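Posting for a labmate who doesn't have an account.
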Amino acid sequence: MGLLAGATMTTGGLLSACASNGEGAASQSADGLGVVSSSGANQAVQADPATPPQPVGGKVLVAYYSAQGHTRAVAERIAAATGGDIFEITPENPYSDADLDWRDDNSRVTREHDDQSLRDIVLSQVTPDAFEEYETVFVGYPVWWQMAAWPVNRFVRDNDFVRKTVIPFCTSTSSSMGSTRQTLEQLAGSGEWLDGQRFGENPQDGMVEDWVESLNI
């Protein structure tokens, strides 16, 4: 079984369902199981395009968890397209490459998959600064064993999305988004959740931007 739901295993990747970048731990590695970068973690950082567009539907936040960088790359493109801010969801105890090795029955991610009680991951920062000011929140993640990578769970569960539009997105080598959106929406218990979008490890030029434009936010 792969960490990512229905995702195909990628060399050296642990997670890869909806996020072949380590976002899926099991048979995929979209956002792959890899070292989580700490850059930009714990704070909302203004995207830095030359001339950032102004969001039509109010302030936009792009929050994401990325294990191997694939989800991060998509998040940055969404932020650039919307003129939004970025917030990296960062585990207080980051995953190492060994932690993300889904082929190892004793690795951290495998033990967490097998024991649901281990999936409540403590984050360095749960709520972005001035979170109440954002009207639209993108939530990005890789897919692990057909589930959204669990570091995202606490972010979704412990924040108030009332009067916010929430748009999920994920990365994977082959798996679909599956029921990850519905599961996260139920966990959040608030907000207007849209269907969202799944991307491969390296979306073609314009693919992310065209999707964002179709949202009319």
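Reply:
Got it, the structure tokens are right above this. The radius of gyration is 15 Å.
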